[in-house]
Amino acid sequence: MAAMKALRFLVCAIAWIAAVVCVAWAFGALYFDFPTAGAPIAFLFVLVVMAAVILVRGKLLKLGIVFGAFAVVVSWWLTLEPSNNRPWQLDVAQTAWAQINGDSVTLHNVRNCDYRTETDFTPQWETRTVRPSQITGMDVAINYWGSPWIAHPIVSFQFSDGLPLCFSIETRKTVGQQYSTLEGFYRQYTLIYVVADERDVVRLRTNYRREDVYLYHTLASPEQARERFGEYIETVNALHENPRWYNAVTSNCTTSIRAQRAVEKRAPWDWRILLNGKVDEMLYDHHAIATSGLPFAELKQRSLINERAHGADQDPDFSRIIREGLPRSD
Fold first, then answer.
1. Cα 101 from Cα 239, distance rounded (Å)
2. Which of 75, 105, 244, 320 is the most exposed place for a label (fewest CB within 10 A)?
């Protein structure tokens, strides 16, 4: 009898914890995403739910009202559609897209801004033609701006006959909008794949934002790198035609890399995909990056490229200089 009471208590407690979480999420959805008067609507929602819980009799009925109200908010929230037609900030004003003709891929709106400071720059959007057959490998840059648990990965493809080409998965923000982790759980930002020169997305972070950037050479073969390049191109074209919402958990700069792969080709789930400040450690553990036999701590220290990036700055040979001394193979 005591065991049954304990079990009922545990089930009830879990149900009410879930109910509180649902109400909190619904409050945020209304607060951030309701088109007008979001804050009053959100507070009114909570007051109505609380009044129902207090006045209605019966635990199951109370829970039913809470979950029913949550379902109504979710049903509305899922109808919100992203758009490519908004007053975008200059650095994300254009979306990349590609034309494929055999071994020739012409990428439009490749970003290569002329920076004076992080916020003072001349937008430059270029058209570049590359040949996937000339891809020799792929590197990954991991940059940090605060917490060691949260970072941003940038994948860079190397070509034997041209400059590297980077893909940075970011939030697409409108004029005046700032990134908020909390708002990232709702439908405040769309997802954008910035295709760029390394002298843009890497140098912006090392030289102007003063973020720590670590560069690693992956052990992907040229064939594997070409396959991954094709996945990026497919996603870039899809987003150009049909925008998607960014989400801080389900559709962010790291989970999107995994999600763009065919299901049967995805790597096993790892908690470090979410806490992506540890994603380089994950790649090290999975033997996916060149280490020269170094322990991870030493490898990471040697992979910090900020000093070389500061020295290279405007040098056309920026990409070669930042790689000097990096481990290339085991």
1. 20
2. 75
CA distance 268 to 287: 14
Q: Compute the mean pLDDT over every residue in the chain, rounded to the nearest whole number.
A: 95
Residue 172, beta-bridge partner list: 190
CA 242/CA 240 separation, integer angstroms: 6
Calpha distance 2→37 (Å, rounded): 49
Looking at residue 37, the DSSP 8-state letter turns out to be S
End-to-end Cα spacing for the chain = 62
Alpha carbon distance 143, 202 (integer Å): 9
- Structure token digits, residue 101: 């003709």
pTM of the model: 0.92
pLDDT of the residue at 4: 75
Q: Partners of 140 in the beta sheet? A: 155, 216
Per-residue pLDDT averaged across 128-139, rounded?
A: 97
β 152-159/162-172 pair status = antiparallel
Distance CA 103, CA 230 (A): 11
At residue 255 the predicted structure's pLDDT band, cuts being 50, 70 and 90, is: very high
- Phi and psi angles of residue 263, each rounded to the nearest 5 degrees, phi first: -55, -45
Rounded distance between C-alpha atoms, residue 235 and residue 260, angstroms:
7
Beta carbons of 314 and 207 less than 8 angstroms apart: no
Closest among 229, 271, 266, 241 to 100, alpha carbons compared = 229
Alpha carbon distance 24, 9 (integer Å): 22
On whether the CB atoms of residues 173 and 89 are closer than 8 A, the answer is: yes
Tell me which residue has tokens 């400040």.
Answer: 277
Report d(CA 187, CA 203) in Å as an integer: 30
Residue 1: the pLDDT is 67
The helix (run of H) or strand (run of E) holding residue 121 is strand 121-122
CA distance 29 to 27: 6
Q: What pLDDT, on a 0 to 100 scale, did the predictor assign at position 12? A: 87
The alpha carbon dihedral of 79, 82, 86, 88 has a sign of positive
